[in-house]
UniProtKB/TrEMBL annotation:
Localization, UniProt: Membrane
Membrane topology according to the record: Multi-pass membrane protein
Nodulin-like domain segment(s): 8-197
Signal peptide (from-to): 1-23
InterPro entries: Nodulin-like (IPR010658)
Protein name per Swiss-Prot or TrEMBL: Nodulin-like domain-containing protein
PANTHER family (alphabetical): MAJOR FACILITATOR SUPERFAMILY PROTEIN (PTHR21576:SF11), UNCHARACTERIZED NODULIN-LIKE PROTEIN (PTHR21576)
Amino acid sequence: MTPPTAWQWLSLAGIIWLQSVNGTNTNFPAYSSQLKQLLSLSQLQLNNLAFASDAGKLFGFFSGIAAFYLPLWLVLLIGSTLGLIGYGVQYLFITNYISSLSYTHIFLLTVVAGNSICWINTVCYVVTIRNFPSDRQVAVGLSTSYQGLSAKIYTVIVDALFVSFPEKKAKAYLLFNHLTISATGIYAVITSLRSMPSGLPPFGNAIGVLVFLLAPLVIPLAVKIREILAAKSWINREAKVYNFTVEENVNVERMGMG
């Protein structure tokens, strides 16, 4: 069995990044209070909105069916579009660009946004299983575990960019939700933030996130370098064998002539 290539490792790094920014439902508390204020919601209605995101995942089987009949890039595009609509329209509502949304509209938009996560997850699972067939359980489990970091990633970015404008943070969360989920085809990576020091300023935390985003690229880069060195070593070995064979033939001819 051949070991994974650099491109396979790079695909896993990209999938980890997709999963780490795909848990957009985890930052609902960041803007829920503003929705509650704009719509004059009761606590029960607000709780139902929190449930709506999970309710959208009940229709996740549609993404699985689509993956059988559609190319994966189209499945990813559908998921990105659903997330763009679900979170984007809510962002326009919070920023007063849309003023006529009802509670039912927000509920349905949250369901759509929650369902978008399933489409992106489906693409991640299919690509991981195809690239790591013998270790698919470990690879899928590794990529899925990073989805829990979404809330921390969004928090660090928003705190760094809006440190002087705390009143705009709720809008910023929705803005990042629909922008990042519409750009999930970009390959990037992230690893654990557990070692992040808590005393750093917001901008320092953002730099730390960027460093951790790039860190797992070491694996595919190292594999690629090893492949290049192995190829060069093989070429040099073939050249030495060829030169040795030529010299041996020349010596034999000289001995025959002598």
